[in-house]
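To close the chapter, one final illustration. This time we ask the reader to focus less on the individual chains and more on the assembly as a whole: which components sit near each other, and how the overall shape emerges from the parts.
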Amino acid sequence: MTTIITPSKNALQRKLPRIFQYLILSFFVLIVIVPIVMIVFGALKTRGEFMTRPYTIPFPPNWDNLDKIIHQPSFWRMMLNSLIVMFATTGCVVVFCSLAAFVFARTEFRGKGLMFNLFTLGLMFPINIAILPVYLVLRHMDLTNHLTGVVLIQVAFLLSSNILILRGFFAAIPVELQDAALIDGCTIAGFFWRILLPLARPSLAAIAALTMITSWNDLLVPLVVLDSDTLWTLPLGTMQFQSQYGQDLALVAAFLTLSAIPTIIFYTFAERQIVSGLIAGALKG
Amino acid sequence: MYEASPGETILPSRQEVRSSRGLQDKLIIFLFLLPSTVIFLVFVVYPIFHSVYYSFFNWKGLGPAVDFIALDNYKRILTDRVFLIAVKNNLIIVFLSLLLQLPLSLGLAILVGRNLPGRAFFRSIFFMPYVFSEVITAIMWLGLFNPDPDRGFINALLILIPGVEPFPWLADTRTVLLCVFVVLSWKYFGFHMLLYITGLQNIPLDVEEAARIDGANRYQLLFNITIPLLSSTIRTSVYMSVLGSLQQFILVWIMTHGGPVNASEVMSTYMYRFGFVRFYLGYGSAVAIVMFLICLAFSLVYQRLTPQQDYLGGI
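The assembled structure is written out below.
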């Protein structure tokens, strides 16, 4: 059996010569990379260099643009606001969603199906559509122009998908464990806290990573909720910076580079978590 | 919520220990669900009804809404030429995504395959745009599309071809939507590719093997075995792509503001313009409700028409 399978394993791929395969893939790698590289190159040029030789490798690199932005207190304030929102949102999402997902995955009570369907309804009302309705409610509650307002909305619109993801993960943990724990006198809360959560750590990491990225990149909610520039988050500041300094492309490039760096660092470390969270979300949704 | 569910089904028992435990369990369930439910009801469910209410008023946000106009907002939306253009543009993006972006993602997923040396590298690179913020993506591409070849890389490449003039990509009504689509694809193809790669990994090797032994050639293998076995992944990917295309906002808004002359207007930019720029809150609410109904209708019809097929379950 194995002797038949092994040689023809690459059935599809062997016939298409590998070189050709790599050529196509490399072409798309270029398409993905070139726009990003252009920005980084731009960031390392003076305004004059940017005008005369826009596409060359910046050698020697010019750090003035980056320097100028790093020394703007507003840049760090925006970074701080973004971090506050991101950690608050992520904390709430992880805690609230794991509590709710546990109930939906592991307990029985009347009205469970109804409650669960209510949450899945949220998937059909994404924030891009809901933004005006939500803004009106927030205005009524006097929560506009507060970071709290941003966090609450972000959390609210991340609940459905993350409860769904976690419910799937929690349901995969063997029932026997729960039975054994309950027989040994554990309460369901005790089982959740002492047995299920430690076992589910990778899935919690997945939704945390996914939430961090979503919250960090979110522009729409801060754009609508926050007025005063002391509360701006990084994406909002990026948008304003571009409309203010749009002519000085080198400076804009420097700003973009600096605001993208946290994302890239985070991506290199958490790629696996982000990917597994996304896949779980898509396949369970 | 808790009071409304009296007849719990937990452990019927006469022992006092047990029944106190049943009560405790109910309390725990209640407390565990409380935070999500409250936030969800207040910030997701309530706004829908709140906006339905305001959508019946001519209301500009100052003072209470008093000018009741029944369904006039809806009538105006559905007869406004600009809104219909926006819907058409959304549909164009939907179809372009289904016809070009998803097949491209599937093709790349098959190329990266199961065991190509370096596949992790390709996967990481292709997926990277997905984690970039929409703001950064939009501003980056704004630069690339710049009509001045000394500033926009795309035109710089274009004028290398003899006799070709630089082109104002985003300022021309014929190309602007296509440009938006290119940027959307750049950002999202990696996500769909990832879904397909996962789907491919779930296809057992021996199925393809058996088909090969039975004499299937490469194309037969691809179209008769691999793609049908991927059908549930494709179904998911199509669903997410359509819903995503229907609600695109930030990329379009930053790159084009829906212009020039509404050529790249989509439903969400239309809503933003009326709701947040002109502050016609009643009208904007009605637009939001229309968008919600369109997405809801699509979801329900799609789920009805394409029942979850599980070919692998039958093997």
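Chain A has 15 helices and no strands. The CA atoms of residues 12 and 18 of chain A lie 11 Å apart. With these observations in hand, you are ready for the problems at the end of the chapter.
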